[in-house]
Amino acid sequence: MIHRIQTLLVATFLAGPVLSFAAPVPAAAPAAAAAPAPVGTGRMLQQLESDDWILQAEALHYFAKNRVTDGLRATRALLANEKAGPWIRGRALVTLSALENKVDAAEFKKWLEHTRPELRAAAAEALEVGGGDQATAWLQTLLKDKDDTVRYQAAAALARRSKEAAWSVVDPLTAAGTTGPLRPAARALAWTGTDAALQRLAALMAKTEQLSQCLQGIRDVPSAKLVPVILAARAVLPESEERLHGLILSDLQRRDQKDLIAGLGKFIEAGGDPNIRTAARIMTLLVPAPELGEPLRKALDKVTDTKTIEAGMIALGIPAIEPAKHLEYFTKQLGHADAGVRALAIRCLAHCEGANLFEILKPKMADENVSVVAAALGALLRSPAADAPRGTLVTYLKAPLGSLDAAVRSLANEVLAHGGSSEDYKPALETLGSLLKGKDDMQRESAAKALGALAPQGQVGDLVSMQGYLAKWTIIGTFLNDEKNSGFQEVFPPEKAIDFAAKYQSKFVWTGVQGGVEGLDNKADEREIAWSKVEVDQADGRLLMAANLPPPGSHSIGYAVTDVTADKAREVFLNIDGDDGFRVWLNGAVIGEQMAVPDVKTRATVATLPGVKVQLKQGSNRFLVKSSNITGGWWVRIRVTDAEGNPVDFRAPKP
Questions:
Q1: CB distance 190 to 218 below 8 Å
Q2: CB 481 within 8 Å of CB 488
Q3: pLDDT, tens only, 99-111
Q4: What is the pLDDT of residues 268-298, one digit of tens each?
Q5: Distance (Å, whole) CA 278 – CA 312
Q6: Banded model confidence at residue 2, pLDDT cuts 50, 70, 90
Q7: Which domain holds residue 452?
Q8: What does the pLDDT average to over 350-368?
Q9: Bridge-partner residues for 583, per DSSP?
Q10: Could you tell me what percent of the chain has a pLDDT over 70?
Q11: Mean pLDDT, to the nearest integer, of 576-586?
């Protein structure tokens, strides 16, 4: 069914004068070596010899387009077959003329005088480029034919041969009020090419119900003058006519690039919102030519329609059109009354190489529309961090950092992390510090990420503690694990007694490449390990086991201990997670364990254990974590909150 639809489309195009033929080869030209037949020739020969006229039409089109002379015999046979339909025989006549590159006068005369108009029309079509000196006389005969299609096709052939000299014939056939066949009429007007002919063609194409057939008639007429005519038809075509818009794009796409550029230039020069908007959209879709940038920008200076301005800016923002040349225009549109235009101007500015967006977009930080502010912050994230104001970035971002819109605040935090420096850390902490102690996890994590990027060395731990994460640990490892995670069930010395002065002999196995060292076998080696103190240096609270223990991190077990002091006995809640798995003790009692199940889509192996309610005693409380890893990332994290979700900070109060 699909194949039949495809061939039906081909046949629809073949129904009009859409085949183009080369001019006859001069007699003195040397014979060229026969080129090998295209790959699809065999299948097309089978189609031509079938009884299906749709398949036959597709094959004839293929032979004519690719100049496949292997199809000559079958094409002649189809033409001579009086049982075949007259239309498909006419296609065979046109194809045969194209393949032979000539017209046999004696044989051709019978087609000129044939009783079926389909064959006479096909003969007229063949005379567009064939027939030699006799063609004009034959066309004069066909112009008197009683059938409209024959006369109009003859007019199209005459116009192709004589161009503007054919106007005296084409004019009365296409004058207002005439109702001749559209495809050859449009073709005749296109080949004539005078201003009057093109104006009449534009009038035909302006009517939606006529556009498709007109496009079929002109699709192989090469002329830069046709481009504005086609664009004018698109400019008045309702957006709902998707099929016709597609046909116009297909026609333009087949045209010579120089003709397209020249035609678009003329169309832009004519001015008017519909013209400029249409030209801009075609530039965006098909012709991102830098030489059209300046004419388009100058035309946009004279328009006020929002849709036209937006279409123009989208075209000017294409990298190939060199948007930096239009920076002044984009900057001007930052003050437009329409928020959509302002946001689009920002996105275009983001494509302007060398532009300092931190300077240009400063006023947009306080724009009344959150979408504009978001667009500006997004553009800043793609700008060089070196352009950000050093030491005053928090002041620069004051409005979005305090925005009521959560997405804007998060973007502002990202810009702060992207462009900030250690000089911005103190004012940033004053502005964002309260978020670290809040209940909004998204805002807390966003603020922590920004502050973590700015924090001087050694100060990330304070950010971690403010969020309720346990930040200071004493760790030891690695102990041997395997692919089955057997080590997770084995009791290693730290589980029996915590002695920070003790050292242990442990085994490890190199697998794959770890730390730049490639494992050659699975033999276990031994080494001495000892406890070491570490402070979490990730603003999101993760204790990175692999980064703080000797390699390899794969097939490993590690332990982490921390002591916290409670001023009184109290109930708290723990959110524990890690990669790959963990078991946690509090004051010697197991309070929870979890082993990750790999995510099918992301392959992540993060184990989570939220909302574990525990009782802290007054004074010192000890957490012991056993963390296992098979392969990949290796970390563990514990966050402590009260019953309302407020973080519990165990740092000693500062004097």
A1: yes
A2: yes
A3: 888 777 888 889 9
A4: 999 999 999 999 999 999 999 999 999 999 9
A5: 9
A6: very low
A7: 356-456
A8: 97
A9: 593, 626
A10: 91
A11: 95
Secondary structure percentages of the chain, helix, strand, coil, to 5:
50, 15, 35
CB 552 within 8 A of CB 510: yes
One domain, residues 264 and 379: no
Of the pLDDT bands very low, low, confident and very high (cuts 50, 70, 90), residue 522 is low
Is the bond into 482 cis (omega within 30 degrees of 0)?
no
Average pLDDT across the chain, whole number: 90
Query: pLDDT tens, 524-539?
Result: 899 999 999 999 999 9
| CATH (domain of 608) | 2.60.120
The reply to whether 536 falls in a domain is yes
Q: Quick check: 487 and 618 in contact, CB under 8 A? A: no
Q: Which residues contact 254 (CB under 8 A, 6 or more apart)?
A: 219
What CATH number is associated with residue 417? 1.25.10.10
Q: Are residues 342 and 426 in the same domain?
A: no
Give CA–CA dist 111/581, Å, rounded.
87
Cα(543)–Cα(535) distance, integer angstroms:
8
Are the beta carbons of 215 and 234 closer than 8 angstroms?
no
Q: Report how many domains make up the chain.
A: 3
CA-wise closest residue to 450 among 393, 514, 497, 399: 393
HSE-CB of 566 using CA atoms within 13 angstroms: 17
Contact 115, 88 (CB under 8 A): no
Boundary (domain end) residue, out of 336, 354, 372: 354
In the chain, % of residues over pLDDT 90:
81
- Show Cβ contacts of residue 384 under 8 Å, excluding neighbours closer than 6 positions: none
Q: Last residue of some domain: 330, 354, 378? A: 354
47 to each of 50, 107, 216, 412, 489, how far by Cα in Å? Answer: 5, 26, 24, 65, 72
| Residue 393 sits in the same domain as residue 473 | no
Q: What is the pLDDT of residue 521?
A: 55
Per-residue pLDDT of 143-184, as tens digits, reads 999 999 999 999 999 999 999 999 999 999 999 877 889 999
The 8 Å CB, 24+ separation contacts for 325-333 are: 325/293, 325/294, 326/293, 326/297, 326/352, 327/352, 327/355, 329/297, 329/300, 329/301, 331/360, 333/309
Residue type, 380: L
**Is 367 in the same domain as 400?**
yes
Using an 8 Å Cβ cutoff, are 560 and 474 in contact?
A: yes
Please, are residues 317 and 379 in contact by the beta-carbon 8 Å criterion?
no
Do the domain assignments include residue 336? yes
Residue 23 has pLDDT above 50, yes or no: no
CA dihedral 517, 519, 520, 526 (to 10 degrees): 100
- Distance (Å, rounded) from C-alpha 412 to C-alpha 246? 42
Band of residue 415 on the pLDDT scale cut at 50, 70, 90: very high
Residue 606 lies in a domain: yes
What the block records as the tokens of 59 is 């094959």
DSSP state of 132: G
* Closest residue by Cα to residue 386 from 351, 354, 419: 419
Are 485 and 620 in a shared domain?
Answer: yes
- What SS3 class is residue 618? coil
Residue linked to tokens 């556009």: 211
Residue 413 lies in a domain: yes
Helix (H, G, I), strand (E, B), or coil: what is residue 629?
strand
Per-residue pLDDT band for 114 (boundaries 50, 70, 90) equals very high
CB-based burial, 637-648: b 16+ in 10 Å, e otherwise: bbbbbeeeeebb
> 3-class SS at 215?
helix
pLDDT tens for each residue of 26-47: 333 344 445 566 778 899 999 9
Task: Examine the domain organization and report whether 348 and 363 are in the same domain.
Answer: no
The residues facing 315 across adjacent strands are none
